[in-house]
Amino acid sequence: MAVSALQLGELALHGAAFLCGVVCASALTVTQGEFDGRCILYGSVDKNGTALALSHFSNISLCYFVAAISILIAVYCFSVLLYGIYSCCMDERRWDHTWLTINLAISAVILFFLLVSACILRVGMDTLCSSILQTKLVNSCQGAQHAQWFPPYNAARFYDNLYSAEAAAWVNFFFWCLLLVLLLVQRRREAPFQLLQRNDPEWSSETDAIFGARPQRP
C-alpha cells in the first residue's frame, strides 16, 4: 500500500516529538541530580556571604510530574512510530476513520498536558531567576552557573539544562499542534462515503440526467 505524504509527515513528527520528550525529561532529571534530587523550580535563593544559598525548594512531585508527562508522551510517540513503520512494511492499512478519531482525542489530551508542563517550566524558571538576581551577586541567571553555592552544589549547568527542558517542551507542543492539524486533514479525507438519499438535490439531478425530468403535475 502506498504511503501518503501526510502519513509520512505524521511519522516524522512522532519521531521528533519522541526526541523532544526524551530531552525534556533527561535535562530536568539531570538538574535535580545537581541539587541532590531536589526540585529547584519556583525555588528561592538567598545570599550567604559571597555564595548563593537555596532557601526554598518546590515539592519534588512537581518535577516528577513534568518529567513523567514527557516520558509518557515519548513512549507513546515511539510506540506509534514503530507501529507506523511496521504497517508500512507489512502493507497494512492503519489510518482508518476510527483510528484517526481516537488519535485526535489522544492528541488533544497530550496537547493539554504539554501546555501545562511547558508553563510550569517557564514560570518556575522565571521565579527562580528573579530570586537569584535579587541577591545582586550575579548579573544574569545564566551567570549563576559559575557562582559559588552553599552548600556546594554541582550547579555548573543548571540553567542550561532547565532552558533545554523548557525549549524541548515548547517545541514538542508545536510538533503536536502540527500533528493535530495533519490528523484533522486525514480524518476529513478518510470520512466515510455518504449514500445519496431520495430527497437530496443531488439525487434528483442524477436521476433526471438518466431517466429524464419528471413531468410537473398541474
Word description of this protein:
By secondary structure, the protein is mainly α. 64% of the residues lie in helices and 9% in strands. The protein has five helices and three strands; from the N terminus they run H-E-E-H-H-E-H-H. The protein has helices at residues 5-34, 60-89, 97-133, 158-189, 201-211, and strands at residues 39-48, 51-58, 149-150. The chain has a three-stranded mixed β-sheet. Helix 1 packs antiparallel against helix 4 (158-189) and helix 3 packs antiparallel against helix 4. The chain is elongated. The termini are far apart. The model has no long low-confidence stretch (mean pLDDT 83).
Overview features:
single chain, 218 residues, mainly alpha, 3 strands, 64% helix
Can you summarize this structure?
Helices cover 64% and strands 9% of the residues. It is mainly alpha-helical.
How far apart the termini lie comes to 56 Å
> How big a fraction of the residues is strand?
5-15%
Give the topology string: H per helix, E per strand: HEEHHEHH
Q: pLDDT average, as an integer?
A: 83
Q: How many distinct helices?
A: 5
Please identify the structural class as seen in this structure.
mainly alpha
Secondary structure tally: strands: 3
How helix-rich are the residues, as a percent range? 55-70%
Outline the biggest β-sheet. Answer: 3 strands, mixed
Shape: elongated
Low-confidence stretches: none
Radius of gyration: 27 Å
* Strand line-up across the major sheet: 1-2-3
